[in-house]
Write a structure and sequence with these properties.
Elements: H1 3-16, H2 22-29, E1 54-55, H3 64-72, H4 74-87, E2 93-96, E3 101-112, E4 115-116, H5 120-123, H6 125-136, E5 147-152, E6 157-161, E7 168-176, E8 181-185, E9 188-190, E10 197-200, E11 206-210, E12 216-224, H7 230-247
Length: about 250
């Protein structure tokens, strides 16, 4: 760690307790053995996080209100997204995953590069309102990542991969789902049900596909894993931000 990060960790320990950053430091300096085989390609695994690929979207007290609000807003969100897709298609971009870029995987961002994308509020006002109020303002969003509408075109697939870490968790609100779509996380395959959410740990190997005849759209929101503490979230944000600055 840089001297600046070490000083910041010391401030966190003074505020939250002497052991409040232990798991983060073990993640950075430990042996790296705290992982399931299907997390082998993830960059960082925070020790002590339950190695569960799939979660019930309603089981976590912190996340359940977000799920309920998004699901209740689904009809308006779908109507606004479909209107944007028809009239403002140029606002959607090829999704730039850290491992790949796909023209048949389109994205409209609500949050990117550490900030809200205000231009998207005009296109998706309901989703932006719910996301801002229920996720950002409550501190549940992992600001190191994104929130975006993910649209897979017919015939598109996302190759099996692990995402970067296990200390955030991925929420999918199923917006518009044709037949022939699915997602596999670890050893279990599921289908999206329109208007409902899926929640999974994307440090596990996962893949998705659209074998249907029209686009498949979901809203993807990166939340802090509910088994992380406030101190750890602060420390992880500092560490990853500094690593990105040094490697830019």
């Amino acid at each position: 760690m840089t001297p600046e990060i070490e000083a910041a960790f010391e401030r966190i320990r003074r505020s939250h307790g002497s052991g409040s950053t232990d798991r983060v430091e073990e993640m950075l300096y430990g042996s790296g053995q705290h992982r399931h085989p299907l997390q082998k390609d993830a960059k960082w695994i925070l020790p002590g996080i339950s190695p569960r690929p799939w979660h019930d979207p309603h089981e976590h007290a912190e996340i359940a209100p977000v799920v309920r609000t998004f699901e209740a807003a689904h009809p308006a969100i779908k109507e606004e997204l479909n209107a944007a897709w028809e009239a403002r298609r140029q606002e959607f971009a090829d999704y730039e995953h850290y491992l790949m870029r796909q023209q048949n995987w389109q994205a409209l961002y609500l949050f990117k590069s550490g900030r809200l994308v205000p231009e998207s509020a005009e296109l998706a006002p309901t989703a932006m309102r719910v996301f801002s109020k229920e996720v950002v303002e409550t501190g549940k969003h992992c600001p190191l990542l994104e929130a975006h509408f993910s649209t897979l075109l017919p015939g598109a697939s996302i190759a099996p991969h692990c995402d970067l870490w296990n200390f955030s968790i991925n929420l999918h609100l199923a917006i518009d789902i044709p037949e022939g779509c699915g997602i596999r996380v670890a050893d279990e395959t599921r289908e999206w049900k329109e208007g409902e959410c899926l929640l999974f740990d994307y440090s596990f190997e996962h893949e998705a596909w659209n074998h249907g005849t029209r686009p498949r759209s979901c809203l993807l929101v990166d939340l802090w894993h509910p088994e992380t503490t406030l101190a750890e979230r602060e420390a992880l944000t500092l560490v990853v931000t500094e690593i990105r600055r040094l490697t830019a």
